[in-house]
Amino acid sequence: MDKETPSPTKSSFITRFWKALGPPTLPTDDRGRMRMVVDNIVLHLHPTKIPESTLRWSYTWGLGGLATLLVLILGLTGTFLELNYTPRPEQAYLDILALKTNVWFGDFLRNLHHWSANLLIVVVVLHLWRVFFTAAYRDQRANNWIIGIFMLLLVLGENFTGYLLPWDQLAYWAITVGTGILSYLPIIGAPISQTLLGGPEVSAATLLNFYSLHISFIPIAILALMSLHFWRIRKDGGLTISKREDPAYNTNIKRVTTIPYLVRRELIWALIWMGILLFWAALVPAPLEGIANPEISPNPAKAPWYFLGIQELLLHLHPLIGGIIVPILVVVFLLLLPFYDADSDNVGIYFRSLRGRYLSLIAVGTSLIITTIWLVADEFFLNWNTWLPTWPSLVSEGIIPLALILLGLLILDELVKKWFKANLEERILFFFVFLFSSLVVLTVVGIFFRGPSMSLIWPWQATIH
Amino acid sequence: MKEEEKEQTQITRLDFLKTLWFGLGGLVTIELGGLTVAYLQPHVTEGEFGSIITAGNVDDFPPGSVTHIPNGRFYLSRLQDGGFLALYQRCTHLGCNVPWDQNLGKFVCPCHNSQFTQDGDVLNPPAPRPLDLFPITIENGVIKVNTSKPISRDKINSTDVVYA
């Protein structure tokens, strides 16, 4: 090899230039391909070789890769959108209108940004489910799970801050209602809300704060955690491999080089989704209502759709419980999950076992029924406030219902243990599915079944404004 | 023996310097942290919402009336007995604006149907507490309202009402 390479002094200017900046010569042997992964700043976040079984499409569903693609699209479209946007109340909405009417492909760019952002929330939650269902968070992978939870919170924060920027009625009141929840956090809630909003209400200061958070603070944090997340996958030995596929576990696995097997799939997957998103953005406009009017609240005023599960809870539980305690409990539950669910090395198998599959289905069914019954019963029959008129509403509408719900969950757990002889990991699986199904029910009810004054309606009765 | 004793009772030069560096590091962190928090505090412009707003003369508001003061973002409510209340227009539930409904004679929040009486008391949940107040001062028949900090209250109180 060395003898064939012309010495630098002998090669021409063009050759040297081409060698430094032109396309690399792609290696054809395994060693060269592994070398290329290590040497490339983007590719080195991958392992050099990966177990062949983890390439299976129905194992990962490509969710992590799709999330990455969406973040890249969002970064790029966002950077371009900044060129036509002023974060001031008197200008922001006009800028969005100009984007729709005056700027070449401005509307398309905004649609692409909007739909990618909404899709990202769905995809990262599905990704979290995938990792949980294959138990790919045990032992050393717990670290990466926690990084993932923080990224989920950041993605929600990024979406929420972006929601305000168009400065239309939808944005203004969604952020008002969304940040209103904060005021129920004792002692520190009010100062945090003041700082975040730059005053007591959503105002010019809020728009500037949210803009800065949206374009610098949160994206930088997300990018940093993303590289950490990818690097941890490599350090943890790639994706989990099921014992069923490999009895010797981690010793005799067939490994293939990342180039071309993984990179090729990633690129094709990205291309497919690019196609879908381009069509989507071209055909479906992002919503935009009239300019924000701080004097007139619309009816109903709803938070962004991904927080409507929490807003639905607020209608049933005292705000401190429904808006603060329950969400904190859910995040803590997620963070501690890999340490509690650690006693089995049953990884890489969907739903843990055959019994796990049935239990998951049963969990979805019971959750749908119980959550719906509770919602409807609470709307029409349960009236803690009038039953216990002398008690503070925090107790009568907060602590008592929460205690009853927790008691109900405990009873359910006993039944699962007794009837299905479920072991610890299957019981945890049952709960995870049950709770997330409840969240889905709450969110769907909040989005589609709540009309004026937040009364229960059928979706087809909703007035489109 | 002497060496051990020295180790136990006296700090060495190295320990001292180590503690000093850690202490200084901690100090700098606290300073920068405090600085950041202070920097992030909202600032108020004179004459706008957040400062002292002149609502008008006592005689401009007949008893039993509710008047919206837009630049102060509050309702000046004059009760039947002539007393004044400055009610923050923000719903205590989740922060929507609560318009006064003259026909019904009550505040009705469009967001989640919380309702309040003319003195701000809750008629209908989900609002957990009465409407917030701004402090009123009346000098020579001129009503001034300090909008810098809304006062939240768990129950309405006759001492909330200000008389000319």
Please give the structural blueprint.
The complex is a heterodimer of chains A (465) and B (164).
Chain A: H1 13-21, H2 30-39, E1 49-51, H3 57-60, H4 63-82, H5 89-101, H6 106-133, H7 142-164, H8 169-180, H9 189-197, H10 204-235, E2 255-257, H11 258-283, H12 308-314, H13 319-340, H14 354-380, H15 384-387, H16 393-420, H17 424-448
Antiparallel strand pairs in A: 1-2
Helix pairs in contact in A: 4-6, 5-6, 6-7, 6-11, 7-8, 7-10, 7-13, 12-13, 12-17, 13-16, 14-17
Chain B: H1 2-9, H2 13-39, E1 52-57, E2 66-69, E3 74-78, E4 84-88, E5 100-101, E6 106-108, E7 115-116, E8 122-124, E9 133-134, E10 136-139, E11 142-146
Antiparallel strand pairs in B: 1-11, 2-3, 3-4, 4-9, 5-6, 6-7, 7-8, 10-11
Describe the 3D structure.
Chain A is mainly α and 465 residues long. Chain A folds into two domains: 30-310, Up-down Bundle (Cytochrome Bc1 Complex, Chain C); 351-465, no CATH class. Chain A is 64% helix and 1% strand. Chain A has a two-stranded antiparallel sheet with strand order 1-2. In chain A, helix 4 (63-82) packs antiparallel against helix 6 (106-133) and helix 14 (354-380) runs parallel beside helix 17. Chain B contains two helices and eleven strands, in the order H-H-E-E-E-E-E-E-E-E-E-E-E. In chain B, the strands form three sheets. In chain B, strands 2-3-4-9 form a four-stranded antiparallel β-sheet, with no helix packed on it. In chain B, strands 5-6-7-8 form a four-stranded antiparallel β-sheet, with no helix packed on it. Chain B has two domains: 2-39; 52-160, Rieske Iron-sulfur Protein, CATH 2.102.10.10. Chain A binds chain B through residues 173, 176-177, 179-181, 183, 194-195, 197-201, 205, 294-301, 314-315, 318-319, 385, 393, 452-455, and chain B through 37, 40-42, 44, 50, 70, 73, 90, 93-97, 99, 109-113, 125-126, 128, 150.
